[in-house]
Every structure is written in structure tokens, then in C-alpha cells.
Batch of 2 targets.
Target 1
Amino acid sequence: MAPKTFKSVAEQDRYYKSLAPTFPYLNEPTASRDRDVLLVRAEQPFNAEPRLPQLVEHMVTPVTRFFKRNHGPIPTLDPANYTLTIQVVDGPTTVWRLDQLQMQFDTHEVMAAVQCAGNRRDGLNRVNKVKGVIWGPGTISNAVWSGVKLRDVLVASGVPADPAHSTYQQWHVDFKAYGLSAEDECYGSSVFASKALNPHEDVLLAFKMNGQVLPRDHGYPCRVIVPGVIGARSVKWLRTVTVQPHESLSFYQRRDYKVLPPQANATNLALYWDTISALQAMNVQSVICEPTEDSPRPLDNQPYTIKGYAISGGGCRIDRVDVSLDNGKTWLVARLFRPVSSSAARRNPELNDLPTTKHWAWTLWACQVESGIPKNAVLVCRAWDANGNTQPSEPTWNYRGVMNNSWFKVDIAKCPAALLTKAHM
Amino acid sequence: MAPKTFKSVAEQDRYYKSLAPTFPYLNEPTASRDRDVLLVRAEQPFNAEPRLPQLVEHMVTPVTRFFKRNHGPIPTLDPANYTLTIQVVDGPTTVWRLDQLQMQFDTHEVMAAVQCAGNRRDGLNRVNKVKGVIWGPGTISNAVWSGVKLRDVLVASGVPADPAHSTYQQWHVDFKAYGLSAEDECYGSSVFASKALNPHEDVLLAFKMNGQVLPRDHGYPCRVIVPGVIGARSVKWLRTVTVQPHESLSFYQRRDYKVLPPQANATNLALYWDTISALQAMNVQSVICEPTEDSPRPLDNQPYTIKGYAISGGGCRIDRVDVSLDNGKTWLVARLFRPVSSSAARRNPELNDLPTTKHWAWTLWACQVESGIPKNAVLVCRAWDANGNTQPSEPTWNYRGVMNNSWFKVDIAKCPAALLTKAHM
């Protein structure tokens, strides 16, 4: 199986443009978009991320601060008429109403960070121009999702429950969304069946975040949450789920969200698409959120606490975050703040001291510098995960500007002068 | 649960030494150890690795070239009297004879690389002295293992077959070996139950490698193979398997095989043990095997093929290997040689074109340089895995010298003059 092929990128662009009408952005949930909190990167489709200091004020990101990533207008779905169709190739098709999904399966709650693969795209765009929304380091947020396990619904829809069945080995679970999308007939993606069907991978059909009904911007009334994996796979406004022997044919699986090699560019990228994996789990990442180069410069003779976030993919634990004041010559070790992230541990607090297999949430960190931050400091952070992976010191450019996890730096000399200094003037 | 605690490292050392008698190394399989092929790093226990050019001559490493890592004398086990005891905490205990294990369960074959967490320890020892056998970059090998699935035997021994059972979420599967070990009562380790009990994680009780009965050095008559995970968890000469609610208490799980932070040293390391995860999956790794700094310098006007290996952890695919001739300033992209590594794909060759979820084998790579290798070249390689992880440019020291995956370099100026040049003299 292969997606539609084209003789040139120009032909492909023409094809996808022919699918994509001029979208009506007439019913956007504008009232729920707080422009004091969000930095808007694009208006149509709406794409926005929170400022970094506000992002790490809470372990669980308030809904209003959660980044928003869209590929088209926000669909308007009526929950009374909402249906989710589940198809199994060479098997049954089942149409579920929302109340059936909510009432016929056990509820599960999972704390999980969602991160866009394009987080920190701005860093690669500074190396060389990239294609895509130029995101800063704020397209990550952490929420408590509640809903039902996708596995449970798939088994009730005719997927074999036995994990030794061959479906679990090589098959894929394909998601398609309601609504229009800029680059394909609709938004779509797939994950490995071994992920979607494993009850301990905590893949949810989510109806709520942080206890609230999902806002329209986040997939109302029903979205997928695939913990540990790039946000692109957690499809919003879920319309169909297909259990099939091949990856999604969507543009967003086969053409986008891949780390193309550096020689791939707008004229030759078709040569590389099929040789590179569609991204699933995230790489190891960390970012300094306080101070930023936009916020007042820390006083150089006052204790200061550097703060940030860290995450790795596939539920892998963050074991350590190092912080440097001298551009990576010497390092301090940050204090880590880890929530209990697995749903089992959340239900059984006495399990907290056991090594948890899955760390879906982010880890926040803080590094207290008693002597103050020197005026000429270049701050750097780097995280280490439980597999021994760490971040590379330098960014390596790729055409789509995804998965930038190079050392995050804050050049203190670039910060505006501190407020206190101004008051003294 | 916690392992035995000590007031000081010296007290711990005394305790473990009291357990470890002066071992009799009287029945070592010396005849099977080819010292023309292996670089011996320690005699008692026997620890040896192959030379790099020979290591990558074959996709499947010949048994004689497979690295050997031991923590004590090689046990002498009689297959007719061999038993494997399987215990489930708060459940049954079952004793299996070898012929029962071999005859009562389906046979599975898995191609998987095994890599010691101490591979490339020499690189960290050059930064600062580390504790451990000073390994080069050859403590990795790739074999076809055959045996039975550990899951099948555990289910037959009373572990619930239902993957939604709580055992799968937080429990651990503990392995103990026959024979004596230098640092504890016996060699031991554990893996997550979610790994051991998932049929698609391909955890085996192996009886053969590359079609041959396991040699004594590699665990005869029965060992565990945990694909995608550091070699320390693939316990040889398996004596007991315990399904339990906590990690192994073994020295090799709780005290060794951890990436301690750089400030941890011989006098304070006890402060850090319990804060750092026991290593499971490997980080992303690649090594140049040809040329080496010990082999004749490539002629600078002749085409030359640089060769090596790459691997990542948890079955994550290697998507790209970059090679530099100028110490990382510019990069070429290597050609990759990937075997079909999952057991399902091996049984069904028509599945080859599908994305395979699990890449247990290593990826070999080659990079042809038509213009020849310049005399002053510094070769570098770095791999990228399907999660977007890559290797750091510089090594970061840790006390036990594990998980060194910094850029691998070959300084051509250090190679002895080429043979042809000598002949011309």
C-alpha cells in the first residue's frame, strides 16, 4: 500500500489545494481564546502557544493556557448526533453514539503531556528556512484526560482481545477527523496497533480535560489521546477509527511529521518520504521557561530559580536535567518535580515508590542559583532520560523543522534590563 | 521494598566480598574462546570483545566473534538435570525441566542485537577514571536466537493471560542465574512485566543462537533474551524467574547499570542510587568499524567505504546515519542495511514493506567516499532513530561509565601508514 503518488511536489501541491476549498472560518470559538495568555502564530487555521513563564506555573496546564494546533476550521459537532465509526478491515463496522461510548465502558483518567512535533521549530528556522508554522518552545502542555480506553471500544467493535493475535503485531489503527483540513481531505494519522490495543499504553477516547468537557479547540466532543507520542497522532473531533494492515495514507502520516535528512528540500523531498519513519514517540526534550530573553534580566546579586520543563517519548522517565550558566562548560543538576503519571499509580497512591513503567506527564524542574545569575551568563539546559538518551548540543536542520531538541539556551545579555534597575534610574 | 542498605560504600564492598569466595575458574570453556578474534579485557571473569572490522563483516555475528561478558566463572550445568523454577508472588511455583520447556511450547526465532551498557566505556575513562571493565566499542553483537516465548511459559506457570490484569502494569519479572557472581550472591536482574508478558516484545527463553546449541559462555543450556534492552537484563544460565511487585534487589539492578550524575563518585554514590532508574532500553548508538585508528590508513586518493553499526533501544528503527570527514562540520548520509528483524516479518516475508514496529537487530551502514579519505580527516558518525533522538557530540562522564553514545570519531592521522605505502618505501 502506498499513498497517492505525484510526478512533482508542484503537482502534489495542486492536488491538495484542489481538495481544500477556501475554508469558512465563520464559527471559530474565539471567546475561549485568551490573547493575553496566548502568542498567536497563525489566525486561520488558529495556532497559538502560551508564554513560557506562565506555561510552567502549573503542573497541570490550565485549559486556557494549553497550546492550540489546528490544520483547518474548528468543526461544529452536535453531541446528540455525534457518531464514531469503527471499522476493522475484513471485519465488522460499528457505529457508536457519544452516550454509548461514555456509558458502556469504564472511565479512565490519564495525566499526559501533548507536544507538537514542531515545538521549537523557530530554532531550526534560524539555521535555515523551514516549512511550517514557526513555533516557539511553548507547543507542549500537560493535562489530565478522562475518557474510555480505545482498546476497550475496539474489542467491543470486533478486534480480537487476545494480545497474541497477529493484528497486534503488524497492523495499524487509523484515525480520521471531522472537518476540513488544509493539506488533505481531512485530518488523519495512525499509530501501531500494538500501542492502541495495549491496555497499559493508556490510549484514550477522551471527552474531558482537567475535569472540564473538552473545549471545541481541543476536539469536542471526542478526541484520541495517544500518550508518549507526538501530538499529531492525538486526533481531535474523531470521526472514524480503522484497524488496518497498513499505516494511514494521510498527508499527515506519509508526507508530513518526518525528520527528513538535511539534503531534502522543496524540490527533491519526494525522494526521501518513503525512506523515513512516520514519527511516533517523542525524543528527549527540555526547555528553560524562566528566565526568557523577553523577560526582565535577573539581578546578578540575588538568588534566582531557573525553571523549565522536560519530557521524553514512549513513557520513558526523565532521570536528570542539567543546567549550565556558562554555555555548557560546567553543569548544575536541577531538582525534578514529577507527578504520578500512570493511571494505575494514580488509582493506587501506595504504588508511588515503585518504578512506574510509563511516564506520560512532563517533568518540571527548578535550579536555584544562590549567587545570582551573572550578567554575561548563557544558560543551557539538557535532559537525560531513563534509556540514557540526551539532547544534542547543536540543532540539525530538517525541511519540516520537526523534533528540534538541541540544547535550549537563554543569553542573559539579551534580556531587557530588570524592572528594579529601571526603578532605580 | 529496598535492597540491603549500608552505612558506607566501604561497608557495602566488605559485605559483597564476604559473599564472594575466591572463585574457582577451573572449568572455563577455554577451547571455544578464539584469542585471534577476541580482544581479552579481563581473564577472570572472562570478558572479551571482537575487533571492529571483523565485527561488521556479517549481519549475523558468528558465535566465535560474539562478545563475552561475565561476572564470575562459567557454570557447568547438566541439561538432563537442569531445572528452571518459576515463582509467582502470592501464586504458584512451577519447576520446569529443559525438555519440557523445549517440547511443550511453540518455538520462536528472533534476530536481536545484544549490547553491554558498558560498550565504549573507554571513551568515558579517557574523560575521567571510571569503575568497570574498560570496554572498547565491540561489546555488541547480533544473533538469531531461538527458543520459546517467556510469556507462554509464564502463562503456563500461573500468570494471568489477560493483558488488562494489574500484574502487567506495575509488576516486574526477576531473573536469577546459576553460578557465582563477583558482586552479589548470584547474577540477577529484572524487567518490567509489561515487557516480559507482551507477546510482541519477543522476550525469549533461548536455547540456541544462530542455529547452534548455546555455547557455555552464552548461557548453556537456557538464557533469557530481552530484545531492545541492555545486555545485563538478558540473564544467562537461568535458574529462577519470579513475577513480583518490585524490581530485582540484585546489585546489578539497584547498584550497577545506572547513569549516575557527574557529581557521583566512589565516596558519595550511595546518595544517588535510588534516584536514578535502572537502565532498560538502550540509547541511540553508532560506531565506525572501518577504518579504525589501529588499522592501516586509507589511501587518500582511492575510493574508500567507511563501515559501521547503529542501534537504538526498545525496537526503535534507525532512520539515518550521518558520516563526517571533517570532525562534524559537514555530513554525508550513509547507506543502511537493515535485516527483517521482527519474528512476524521473518515468518511472513511479504510483510517486509510494512513499517515494522520492532527493530531488535542492529543496522549496518556503509558510506562510500569516491575521492578517498583525506590524510588529516577526522571521521565522525552519528545515528538518528525513528523517535528523532540522536547522539550527543561530547561524552558526559558517569562513575560506572555506562551508555556512552557520544559521537564516535576516528582520527585518520593516528592510523598506522598504509601497507601499500610501506611496500613503496
Target 2
Amino acid sequence: MTQGARIVALECQDIRFPTSLQHDGSDAMNPDPDYSAAYAVLRTDLPGPQGHGLCFTIGRGNEVVVAAIEALRPHVVGRSVDELVRDLGGFSADLVGDSQLRWLGPEKGVIHMAIGTVVNAAWDLAAKLAGKPLWRLLSDMTPDQIVDLLDFRYLEDALTRDEALDILRAGRNGREQRIEALQQTGYPAYTTTPGWIGYSDQKLVRLSREAVADGFTQIKLKVGADRADDARRMALARDAVGPGIRIAVDANQRWSVPEAVEAIKALAPWDPYWVEEPTSPDEVLGLAEIRRAAAPVRIAVGEHVANRVVFKQLLQAGAVDFLQIDACRVAGVNENIAILLLAAKFGIPVCPHAGGVGLCELVQHLAMFDYVAVSASTEDRVIEYVDHLHEHFEDPARIVRGHYLAPTEPGFSSTLKPGSLRAHSFPYGSVWQAIRA
Amino acid sequence: MTQGARIVALECQDIRFPTSLQHDGSDAMNPDPDYSAAYAVLRTDLPGPQGHGLCFTIGRGNEVVVAAIEALRPHVVGRSVDELVRDLGGFSADLVGDSQLRWLGPEKGVIHMAIGTVVNAAWDLAAKLAGKPLWRLLSDMTPDQIVDLLDFRYLEDALTRDEALDILRAGRNGREQRIEALQQTGYPAYTTTPGWIGYSDQKLVRLSREAVADGFTQIKLKVGADRADDARRMALARDAVGPGIRIAVDANQRWSVPEAVEAIKALAPWDPYWVEEPTSPDEVLGLAEIRRAAAPVRIAVGEHVANRVVFKQLLQAGAVDFLQIDACRVAGVNENIAILLLAAKFGIPVCPHAGGVGLCELVQHLAMFDYVAVSASTEDRVIEYVDHLHEHFEDPARIVRGHYLAPTEPGFSSTLKPGSLRAHSFPYGSVWQAIRA
């Protein structure tokens, strides 16, 4: 059916949502984000589904990611659809390996995020053509097919191809039961909705109580701007939810290494479940030191970690208790699978970063694949959830009793509705025109 | 004279040189670079000098850096020139601290390189207005003025503000003699001109001999594509220059950690002076392991190191023997001064990366400031030199008997000639039109 079909265009759009007006998404480092997406469509000459991908940003600079996606066009347009979906490892390697574009990273920042967007769009296309949600397409691949997707360069001292195969082969045991469990109860979630730093104390307390009533067993608060505020808000939240609910805190990189140790000890009386991004995400050594000094409080990091090489080192250095993958920071599905396998090798649970726009929709597929084929467990594992902007997606993330329901629609759940695209196109969509008026 | 003057525009151009036609600049990771510059001009309403900055890239994607520079325009246009040049620390902090643009890094890749371009353009303007070459402007600042330029966030566990002040105060001793030495004999250089991987054996031998005849005491070869080629070329070069000349080798990130150890041991018989970028520049732990396993061969790294946080860790982990700053990778002069101070704290010599287009012109100023005010030594220190594309600059780097002569013209030596800008504007300049025809 797809024989002879080609990718005929790579279309890009700058999509922004004016979230800063409500302080939604505010934290100590990012006081006024406008959640945005550099949005890419791999258009084929087939009448049916196209490949949709997005890179989440927080406003200004979204156009720079669009420019970087456009720089990838020569690698994409004209390709055979059949060959593309048959060799998504080769496709990813072509993009990452462009010897001139590589200079802009290497393998980090804007160019890497743009590659991730296009690779993810190709996976959306592949899953739609296969008639499966992405998590299921990945879960149905053989261990050999999975490792063929991966770039082991720079990983061999921590994870060889054979070790990856062993992990995936072990993951075949109980696979069917785990698929069934996902289809019945979904994957556990936690919510950051109550804890944005710009929210009032009353709103924090009200939303914390609502989260528990909605079935969540873990919430997250933003901290790091002011020590006294952090303590007061943590106490309020603990009081609101009681001792049985986990409260994670997120410092969004605000502290130096010694500051972090002190700040974490100050929050310890309220039993934080984890402390997220206490310092720079580039701090392999510093995070390891913070973790040792702040024990038994646990450390989570990953949403801003640039690539698999840094994730590898965080694991090697014993710097993390929870690894937080992000669907849009690294070079897409392929690199995230490598990171899931690294985490499994080191026995560290993966608790994906989400929120923003589209991050929940995307990353749920990776966590569910992790459960079915890699970690084989949901113990100590949760996907972040924030109740923003899901209404703009064709196949939105669905939460029931604190769990992500397993997606059933074919694809990567990354398709924005045409009306949402039109209204939020920056700077001339109707939403932005209305704000200026 | 500048009272009331404003920055009235931030102009950007995409400038490319078709260097891939001659294999100039070819290495194992970058076989066909077209040396390029995302070029920025801070235009004032003064009749006199303007601020010129550039970000070196190797071709495709140069337009992405241009887009990122343009994203910085709101931070720049309308500023008072007086206030800008009086508080270049605050200016840099404003750019690095943009809470939305920060998401695109943080502090790495395209957005960080764009910030470096604009910060460097501001320094060019400041130096021109002061009537001094940049190295001299910096060398004439007091220790307190210098530390006010720096962002110590994430550095405090390795370098405090007080420690930086101590280093700079110690650097006042013998300052005048070092300035005089620079003005008389310049700063030692080494040359990579002979060693590009795409050059024939004959060309390698001929250029190696010429380098020695020209007064260089160190050359550099590109390795890492093929083990047998590396050994043959190393043997040819050693034979051509004799035992008294240092031969550094550069693997341009081609190896994994275990491969690097093996490859370095295989080259050891020809006495490599250092091995550069044996693996990923993100590999703090891996580089430390390579250095231990490959001793006494020395390790050099830095041209692709994303920011001061990673440099700090390379020093903390004992991963490097030589630190190679780059003028265009981090956030400009300010962050590079922080890196020079970190290196001084750890007693590691800085040997700047150069070549490309404009890198020699820019980085010589930083190395000379290092000598006058920070390290106070040129022992074991050399600046890379490649004899490409200097003719396009108003104030080109000048090499005599293997030394960079101290620049005397006001500014950062970053101004391209108007005719060169016109001819190499991509894709419609005359040089590119001729190639297409």
C-alpha cells in the first residue's frame, strides 16, 4: 500500500500558548513560560496519515528550533516511506551524523532537539502506518530490531550491544501480562498541577487536596526561589495531603552544590520524596556529591540532560536515584530507548518528565515500552502529569485514578488539532492577535 | 563623546567559505567542512566604530545560529552604549539569563554560541571605543572589575569570587614585563596546517617540513579515521620533523573510552605531545579514565566543551593535561575568563583552539590576557594556528617565527572586510554563485 510512496515535504510551524498570563508552569528558573511547540509534519504523497512531531519550548526561541528543523529538510524530503519506516535506526543515524550540523552541538541543544522532533515525527508515521500506538509498536519489536535502532558510540564502557540484547531478551518474560495490565489500569502518574511557584498558598492547598481526591499518590512542588517560601509551602502541602502521599520537590537548577546540600537538609523534615534538578543538569560530579551529602533524600534529574553520554555518566557516578527522560530534549525515540536500557543496566527507575505541551502525550509511550520490554516493573516509577493543553491534541493523554491509560490510537499521540494550530500560530494566529489587541 | 549613543540595530549575516573543495580543515569527524561565520554587527548611532562578532561553524546550520542571534535582538537594540560598555558583566548576564531562551540550552549549543557572538561583538565595540586591542583592555582592568564580569553560579565548589580575586591580584606582579614581552616576541603558536586528514602523504610531509622551517616547534595531525593510516602518517611526520619537534594528534571525538586507550597506546612509539578529543567532549568520567590508562601521553580537550560547568568538572576529575578554550563555543569573553581562572586554580595550562575562520583572530586576545593577568606564564602553552582565511579580516592574526604577534589595532580583531562579506554571503554572494554556475 505504501510502495513507492515518498516523503514530499517537511512542514514546520511555530506554535505558542500564552500560558504566562496565568503563571501556569512557573518555577524558580522559569517565572513566565509561554508553552510552545516547534511543530513538524513529515508529509507523504499517501492519502492517509502523516508523521507529526513537536519540540516543546517555553516561548522565545521557539523559532530557532523551527529553523533547526528546517535545516534537516535535505535529509528527509524525497525519502522512500517504506525504507524510512523499515530502518528508523539508519534514519536517526543520518540526522545525528550530518558532519556539518554536528558542529552545532555536538549532540546537544537546539540541533539535537530538532533532530529529536523529526525522528519522533518519523516514528509517529511508522506507528500510524502499522496501525498501532507507538508504545505497542515498540513493544512488538524483537530485541534484535530494537538494538538496531541504537547508536552505541560512547556507550560501550557502560552498555554493550550484547548487554542491551540480554536486557531486552529478559524483558520478554511476562510481556503479555504487562501489556494486559497497561490496558486495564494504565501506568502510575504523579501531578505537578498544584505546585507552580506563582500560585498562591490557597491555590496550592486546594489543588493538593484535589490531586489526592483524584487518586494521585504523589504530587510535586516547585522550590528554589526563596528558602522561607519553600519551607512554608512544603509544610502547607504536607498538611493538606497527610503523611501517606509522596511530595517531590523541584528546584529547577537554582542551587550551587553546597547551597543544594543545605537547602535539601532544610526541607528534609517534611519528607520530600525526591529533590529534582538541585543544580546544573551538566553537573555529573556535583550531583553525585549532593546525593551523598543529602542522603537519604533522593535525587532526580534528566529533563535537561543533553544526551545519552551525560545520562551514562550520571549513572556511572551514582548521581541519581530517579532518571527523568524527556521526549523532546534528546534525539528522539531511538536515543531515549538507549537511555532506558542504560537505566535498566544500572537498576535505576525511570520517571519521565512531562507537562509542557505534548510532553505527557509523547512520553507515556516511552514509559509504557519501558514497562513492557525493559524494566518490567512499575515499582517506584511514575510519569509526571500536568493538566494543561491536552484539549489541543487529537489523541490526548487520559488520566484515570492517578494512572495514564494506555493509548489505543495509532501513532505517537503527537498530532495537534488543525484548529489549535491555526489559532496558536505565532505571531499571527487569532489567540496572539487577540492578546495584542 | 558616546554620551546618549544607543545600539540601534543588531545586523546578522550568513557568511560561508567553500573550504571543502580543497579538503582544508578535514578531519575524522568532519570530512568536508565549509568554514562559516554567523556574523553579527552591533550598530550604534555613532559615526565611528561598530561592534563586530562572529560564531564559527562548518557550513550547514550556520543559518540556525543566525536565527538564534536574531532571537537576542530585543536584549540589545535600544541599549545605551555607555551603559553597555560600562557593565559588560550585566549585559552577559541578561543574555544568559533570559528565562525562555534558556530552555534551548541550558547554556549550551546553538543558543549559547549565539550569546557568545553578541557578547563578543559588545567587547569589540568596547575595545574600539577604548582605543585598545581587547587583550590590552582586559589586561588593564582591575581584579575587581574582572570578577564583576563573571557568573559564579555553579562554580563555587571549585572557584569562589575571593579565590578568583586572589589569582588576579597575584597576576599583577610582573604585569608590565609580560606586556612588553608580548609586544616584542608575541605568544607561542603551533600549526595544524600540515595535518588535515584529507591531505596526501606528500602534502603532509612537505607542509610538516615547511612548518619547522617557519619556526614552529609544534605541529598537529588529525587521526581517528583508520588505525593503519594514523600510524603511517604519524611515522611520516615524525620522520619529517625529527625528534625535537612536538607532534600533537587530534582524534576529533572518534573513539569510545576503551578504543581511545588502545589507539593512544598504538601511537605512543612516535611520542605524541598530546592526544586531543579522544572521545565525546561530554565525557568527564571517560576522559579521566582515558588519561589514567594512557599516561604518560597527555590529554587535551575543550573546543567542543559546552560551558564552564563542564570545564570545571574536567578539572575536578583530573581528566585533562591541557585545556583548549574556544572563542565561539561558550558565552563569549566573560565565560572564557571564568574558564581561564578555573584552569589557573587547578594549575592546568590553557592552549586555545583556533583555525576555522576568525578563531585565531579572536582567541589570541584571550590567551594574551591569560598570560598578562592570570597564568603569568607561557610555559607549556601554545595557541593553535592554521593559515586559512586570514586575508578576509581587517586586522588579521600575524605570525612571525612561530609566534602570534600582539594585536595593536583597537578591538577584538573580529571585523571582516566589506568585500569579503559581500562575496561570501550565503547563498547569493558571488563566490557561491560562481560555484553553482
